[in-house]
Amino acid sequence: MPIQDKSPNSVPRKKAYKSSRRNRVPLSCEPCRARKPCHNCTVRDERASCKYESPKNISATELQHHPSKRGNSMQQRINHLEDLVKNLISQHQQAPVSTGGAGTGSSMETSVFKASDSTHSPSKKVIDGAYSVYKGGDDWYDVLQEINNLKQVWNESQGDQPGYNAAPTLPNMADGSSLLFGQVQRIDKIELLTTLPPKHQVDKLIHHFFDRENFPIPIVPILHEPTFMREYAEHWKDPTKTSVIWLGLLFSILSINMLAYQQFGEPLDYEGRSESLFQLYRLRTAQCLIVGDIAKCLPYTIETLRLNATAELNRKDDNSRGLWIMTAVLVRAAINMGYHRDPSQLPSIPPLQAEYRRRVWIAVSEMDDMASFVAGFPRMISSVYADTVEPRNVHDWELSDDLTVLPPSRPMTEATAVSYLIFKTRLFQALGRITDFNNTPTGGSYEQVLDIDSNLSRLYNDLPEELRLHSERWGCTASGKKATGSNMQLELLYHQGMCQLHRRFITKGRTNPQYNHSRDRCISSALAILEFQQFMEPFWYDFSRARKVLTLSAMILFLELECRRRTPDLNSVSSSNSSDDILQALNTCCVLWEKAQSVCDDPQKIFKILSGMLSSFQASATSSSLSQPETTSPLFEFPGMMNLSLQHGHDTFSEDKDWLSVSNEMIEMNIDWASWDAFIEGAIFENRD
């Protein structure tokens, strides 16, 4: 039904066409109604040919006296043309291709939209002064770009006419990408600017952020400091001209500063305020990404998303699932801007920009591997073809705007700002393979396990002495320097990866020599993690991921002790770790958990569980050998563990008998590790009344 124009300037209709129907309040604006096809055309699948009658009923005289209506009419025609091209693109993507063979490169040629004379490459990356967009090899995208240019020219020409009023932007409107940020709402740019602290305060925070030697949180070196400082100075000259995405980058830097103060000590200026400011700046970062729209491929979009992910990664609470979902957005935004293609394919990119694009992509890849490993879900980039090479191991002072040729890469034994990122990315690629293997629906072969193990061990041994911890003194590196949080993180992640790779083969290693390697690897890494616990600062217990790794290691050792108590070791090669050594490590572990109860509430729950289990094994050790099988009956159970069973009669295990129960299937170790990990996270640690 044509839309009735009730404005005073509308063209009067004849009485014969007057309808007696009740007028309805429109639920959408006129441009939206004009762009959308009517119900009948939608049902008939004729959306492209649908045209409303109302625009044609406006006379030329009226259009001449009312430029706004003329602008609306022209805008509707442009929008209609844009919709037609989008429909053609959609049909093109859904059109059947030749079945002559995959990967031959001929599928595009057999499409109904064959462009045999096209001079475009199959795919290309468009980079100019303001945008970086990766486009597929499709000429219809060029047509769409021409339409976008036409719209821009038309809007600019209409902006010079006094009678033309552009539609106001709704500050609370959320579109595609911004929906992933939940309850975050759009706000005006002026409100974003008023949130910034005074310049002298921001100056100190920026200096603190770029002081990599003393900044407590590892920061990926994806920002060229001289370039950023030049843009920072321009911002304060006229903040209203600053890009919203660049503002998001600034807010992400401020949020990481507040997070560092919150976790490692607040200066007097921010005493008692760092946590609330972290939440505020984190919110403003998300709002800048919404207002700037990450799909527009503006400069610093990926850098802002990546630094925002750094802030999320270093939070104390368990946000692994949210981080994994956020990383998926980061990966897709980076691919959308062509970061997965090496800049050498486009010689027009300056050497400085090319090198930092490589740093950004490797930082995105590292975050993808890390988020997937922490959450236990598949990676995003594992199936994506990317040819971006590693950045060169050069110092930041060697890179400048006037470079014509990049300096040669320094030896990897020489520490630079980017060397830690390179080694960490290599290690996480191996950890990502563990995540992929554990998520394989059909399960992989043991040969794959050994291959992943060999690759992870090689990468770990290739770490320079500056990054690897001393084999006997975990408080310092292999080179003798005091260990940092970055050193400890690499060590902990390596052993955590070994536990996650080999834990399903612990029991099989007692009866089958083929799996003895996995058994020793898993037990040794679990013991190494508990040894690492002795050097942990108390504040580490406040981090959910640290508590989870430490508890999982202890549980693996308890399960090994139970296997030794129930069944003799039929393997001709016994484990190199004795039961006494394991019990001693678990005893030290419980002592440390007891001391950590003053840090936060969670260690108290974990200490109660572990100390109860330790008491059970210590009691059985005094009465009989741990290696001899004994009669069993249910004593405790965990979710997803098929009713695991322990020895009958050990009442010292825990006072809470209602959550303790076990079954005969423990020897099979058929554990649902997803449910087990959920248990480790603390969901079952609460007391039952």
Report the C-alpha radius of gyration, rounded: 31 Å
Q: Hey, roughly how much beta strand do the residues contain? A: under 5%
Unreliable residue stretches: 1-19, 53-67, 95-123, 136-141, 160-179, 625-689
Question: What is the helical fraction, as a range of percent?
Answer: 40-55%
Structural class: mainly alpha
User: What gross morphology would you assign?
Assistant: globular
Strand order of the largest sheet: 1-2
Number of strands: 4
Order of helices and strands: HHHHEEHHHHHHHHHHHHHHHHHEEH
What is the arithmetic mean of pLDDT? 73
How many H/I helices?
Answer: 22
Structure summary:
The chain is mainly α.
What is the strand and helix layout of this fold?
Layout: H1 30-35, H2 39-43, H3 60-65, H4 67-94, E1 123-127, E2 132-136, H5 139-159, H6 189-195, H7 199-210, H8 225-237, H9 244-264, H10 274-292, H11 301-313, H12 320-336, H13 351-375, H14 419-438, H15 446-461, H16 485-502, H17 508-511, H18 516-533, H19 544-566, H20 579-595, H21 602-623, E3 632-633, E4 646-647, H22 673-683
Antiparallel strand pairs: 1-2, 3-4
What does this entry look like structurally?
With 689 residues, the protein is an all-alpha fold. Among the domains are: 144 residues, no CATH class; 122 residues, no CATH class. The protein is 50% helix and 2% strand. The chain has 22 helices and four strands. The strands form two sheets. Strands 1-2 form a two-stranded antiparallel ribbon. A two-stranded antiparallel sheet has the order 3-4.
Descriptors:
two-stranded antiparallel sheet; mainly alpha; two-stranded antiparallel ribbon; disordered N terminus; 22 helices; nucleus; 689 residues
